[in-house]
Amino acid sequence: MYIFSISGSPRKGSNTDLLLDEVLKGAADAGAEVEKIYISDLKFAPCVGCMKCRADRVCRLAPDDVNMVVEKLDRADGIVLGAPVYSGHVPGQFKALCDRLVGQVMKFDFTEGKANITSALPLKTEMVWLSGSAPQVCLV
Ligand SMILES: Cc1cc2nc3c(=O)[nH]c(=O)nc-3n(C[C@H](O)[C@H](O)[C@H](O)COP(=O)(O)O)c2cc1C
User: Fold this and answer.
1) Left (φ > 0), alpha (ψ -120 to 50) or beta: where does 13 sit?
2) Terminus of the chain with fewer CB atoms < 10 Å: N or C?
């Protein structure tokens, strides 16, 4: 089992890191392969809102570190995302990554006059969000 994690704090050794490491330690102790990457290590362009990826999961921007993130998300059996609260949201860097991932992780079906949104990731079981500040949210 492969557990992939992203620290959305721009600080290494942060509160978010502490929380993520606790979760990943539990997963590793249970036998999982774990990996954590840092938002501050990623180089990528911001989403330009062309919406084309929503049809086919292919981003039209030049390849960058988001491609690597998508490969790991696709491979992961479990995903752990952590981010502090900045002005009521996640830090801008992490939000920019989330925007780039929308068409990669969500499948949009607008047939029958309503939006049906499901996961575009293969074989996903759980996604966990952690935050080192209020609110703390866990999505399954
Ligand atoms: C620019 C900025 C904005 C913040 N805004 C909030 C906020 O709206 N609500 C909150 O509870 N904490 C806020 N904080 C505090 C951080 O969420 C808190 O210090 C967090 O533990 C930092 O996480 P980290 O150590 O993983 O970087 C803010 C911190 C910064 C730097």
Assistant:
1) left
2) C
